[in-house]
């Protein structure tokens, strides 16, 4: 069998801080030089949390331990890189477990089961691992290849998609294999998605890969960390449903049983074109200490004892920028019209680091979010959710001005979109048409939110750089409201200009449930109502607009006086 050991082989692609193309390294050099890189390059966004959780983070924690106090975590961050002693321990750990990191080892292949086979010796194309490739029922829109086309993966590509499968694989039926006593008629039913597929994944990102690793390791305070999969007995075709025994077990969860089948292509290069994939361990519940997700408290089921609220991982909504969910992202607990939310363990801890002055207020934190949208009983991938925003550390403080400012900005953007939708509805009523249903067609508020997206991201970056300076924040508030008003009126002007002539006259309709009462809809009334709503949403802009209107009115009075024969001396 070929040898491809992940400790040394260049399967990772970290990016150097000074720019240029990514370099290709193994685990050992990537970790010992982590302070030289700003992050990792991957072929597909959702591979990033898979690589972090399945390999890099557990290697660091297994070798060096996790910080047991906030002070210890702050000290690690302050160092800016692994010490000489820590690098020695990392290398010694990888050397000790080297055999378990060989991707094609005959006895213990990394994150696989040796000899995994079906009763008939069948295999599948490597496309079954790749969410962007056509395979069975999973046929991406505009796919350039069919299920019949062979997909050759390099070992580096294969290990990325292997890790991705353990984290994000689709649910439903999986191939039955020899040794799986739960398989029936060559199939295993009822498989859930991979563990990350059930979360809205939140990954805090630092200035360097080293800082990113430290920011993604929770403070454990003596908790049992468990063991990563490479320290556990080699996997077998049999699987079980159980709880995670600790952080390292959770991060390296083997949600599928997999065997990669390598071959050499015509040029002698090592490739993976065939695989066996079957059911793996099922996580009985997402533990409350899962660090990479925010939480939602839902109403209890009627049969729930004591009717206690249920705490569930919060998934990212499809088609919405992450800033539109700031309520759930900011610590520690936030309630809005949709319920009660709690931020992730990691973001909560990062906020505490800033509060304890272990991170500066203007630290350039970024937050990346990841999610998978499944369809047809979670058996196919319909969409991938991925976004990145700058996040001011002060926004993680419950009563900070920065936090309140950003929540206001997000709410104002949503209200402007609703106001534009109301304008559209009133203009349609003015000509006898019904408003656009919320679940059919595109209402004008959505394009407006797309336009405002760039402004909101600039505000997030500006608030992060302000570091809590109240004067800078107030200037930012004013600039935001002026820009938001301008963009909103541009969208509104297009609606008003497109209104047919009948909208000027309008129409009067009887109000439902109010006998004898009527309401008139016309272009003028709709525009006036919209103007009032915009002024109510953006009070700083409204103040400026009214002052400008008074100045113009005064200038007009002066002009009229001059035209009546008044004059001024030179």
What would your notes on this structure say?
There is one protein chain. The chain is an alpha+beta fold. The chain is globular and about 95 Å long. A four-stranded antiparallel β-sheet has the order 12-11-14-13. It has helices at 27-32, 47-64, 70-79, 84-96, 155-168, 209-215, 247-251, 326-329, 345-355, 401-430, 445-466, 470-498, 502-505, 523-537, 539-563; strands at 14-16, 37-40, 124-125, 172-175, 187-191, 201-205, 241-242, 256-264, 270-279, 282-283, 295-298, 310-313, 333-336, 339-342, 366-375, 380-390, 507-510, 518-521. The longest helix is centred in the last third of the chain and has 30 residues, at 401-430. The protein has a domain at 407-562: Orthogonal Bundle (Topoisomerase I, Chain A, domain 4), CATH 1.10.132.
Strand order of the largest sheet: 12-11-14-13
* Strand runs, count: 18
**Largest sheet entry:** 4 strands, antiparallel
CATH level 1 class label of the domain at 407-562: Mainly Alpha
Give the CA-CA distance, first to last residue: 99 Å
**Tally of individual helices:** 15
> What gyration radius follows from the Cα positions, in whole Å?
29 Å
CATH architecture of the domain at 407-562: Orthogonal Bundle
Instruction: Note the overall shape.
Output: globular
The helical percent reads 25-40%
**Could you name the ranges where pLDDT drops below 50 across 5 or more consecutive residues?**
566-570
| Estimated share of beta-strand residues | 15-25%
Q: Name the structural class.
A: alpha+beta
